[in-house]
Amino acid sequence: MFIEKACLRVRNLAGMLLFYRQVIGLEVISETKDGAVLGVGRVGLIELIGDPDAVQPARNAAGLYHVAFEMPTRKDLARWAVHAVKSNFQLSGAADHLVTESFYLNDPEGNGLEVYANRPENQWTWDAGRVAMGVFDPDVEGLLKLAINDRDEYTAAPSAMRIGHIHLKVGDVNAAESFYSKVIGLDVTRQAPGVVFMSSGKYHHHVAANVWESNGAPARDERAAGLCWFSIAVVDPQALKKLEGRVRDAAAPLKVKPETLETADPWGNKIRLVAARPS
After folding, report:
1. CATH class of the domain at 2-236
2. pTM (2 decimals)?
3. Cβ contact 261:273 at 8 Å
4. Rounded alpha-carbon distances, angstroms, from residue 107 to 6, 86, 104, 123, 131
5. How far is the C-alpha of 35 from the C-alpha of 33, rounded, in Å?
6. What CA–CA distance (Å, rounded) separates 49 from 47?
């Protein structure tokens, strides 16, 4: 399984389109008066749904913590970092997580974003199914040496950029772990105070869930701006069928469409489980 796409409900569609094109380098794949799909090449990554009346969620509400864009290479991340500096984009942080090097920022409506590159997998340290992660000072100077620093060469997102993971705000980290591991079928790869990381196929994480701001949060307001849904692609059709059975057994919300299941976690974060398309 892997993250395919994320959908955001936004109040200012035109402004958000401009942001994701200019800052992340996405291109508009399709567009209507009420929304748009942006991505790279013909691969959609972010869908925006315009809703000027969307409710502004409280800071401690469940929902999106960040959408994480995975750069194909460290050099691509360096080119983006120069782009951010030259364009005076407001970054909220940067970190070395041992498995990744990451930069953080918010879009104009407060949705958290991460732009990162993986370290080589042979540098990841695993022990009994858990991967070593942390928060360390990034080697920004070393990173920027990989890019030309006197001009901005990042004119578009690289064609192999994808959404690497989704990080959620939830009301109870143990309940989140139970739902995403037992129902969705992800493996727990890391636990730390107030947060759990989970993945498929021994990736460091495809989904993370924390209670740092949202401990005890109830279900989300469906009218709220922010995360509308995110999709997880399932490579094995039989696994998708078994997943449907687990969702039914858990009495979780379920809508069944051709090659797509839609459910939601206990806080109303909607998940679309889709059959992976051949590459």
Report:
1. alpha beta
2. 0.96
3. yes
4. 14, 17, 10, 31, 30
5. 6
6. 7
